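User: Here's a structure from my thesis project, written as structure tokens. My advisor, Dr. K., wants to see whether a designed sequence matches the one we expressed. Can you design one independently, without my sequence as a hint?
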């Protein structure tokens, strides 16, 4: 609470209480019929009343200043909260960027290893020997181009286990439906 507000409220209350004394004197003077005493009592009452209204104005000014200070404090708190939120958002963005970089760095690349049987098949293919040897040295091998062409009728369905090994199926003609 602002000091002017406190001063105004206390002053106004005190002057309103002080009005009781001249008012009591006024009533006694009226009962006695003493008009001079009544006029003096009314003068004191007017002074106390004017002082009370002056203190009321001081209290009003103090309350306005209280409101201004409260608004300033509220604005500062809002600015601090906005600043904190911005900092938190920036930290979250930095964390997200770091996680993205880590994910990009951790991306796994698939490697293909050709078994000895595959190398033999590759050498025995219809492609010229020099092309097969060159393709084995390079990192990427086009297996469809290097493999011998088999007619589609000779191809049998192949089933793989969860471990990745080839399993022979007795029911090659059976239809299997899978949903993912």
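Assistant: Designed independently from the structure alone:
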């Amino acid at each position: 609470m602002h000091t002017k507000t406190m001063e105004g409220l206390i002053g106004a209350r005190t002057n309103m209480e002080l009005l009781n004394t001249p008012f009591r004197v006024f009533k006694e003077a009226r009962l006695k019929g003493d008009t001079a005493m009544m006029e003096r009592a009314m003068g004191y009452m007017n002074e106390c009343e004017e002082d009370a209204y002056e203190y009321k104005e001081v209290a009003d000014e103090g309350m306005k200043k209280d409101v201004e200070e409260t608004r300033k404090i509220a604005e500062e708190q809002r600015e601090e909260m906005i600043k904190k939120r911005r900092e938190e958002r920036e930290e979250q963005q930095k964390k997200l960027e770091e996680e993205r970089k880590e994910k990009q760095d951790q991306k796994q690349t698939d490697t293909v290893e050709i078994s000895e049987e595959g190398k033999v098949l590759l050498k025995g293919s219809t492609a010229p020997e020099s092309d097969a040897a060159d393709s084995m040295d390079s990192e990427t091998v086009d297996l469809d181009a290097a493999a011998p062409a088999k007619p589609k009728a000779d191809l049998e369905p192949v089933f793989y286990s969860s471990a990745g090994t080839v399993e022979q199926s007795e029911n090659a003609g059976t239809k299997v439906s899978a949903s993912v």
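When you compare it with your expressed construct, this may help: The first helix runs from residue 3 to 18.
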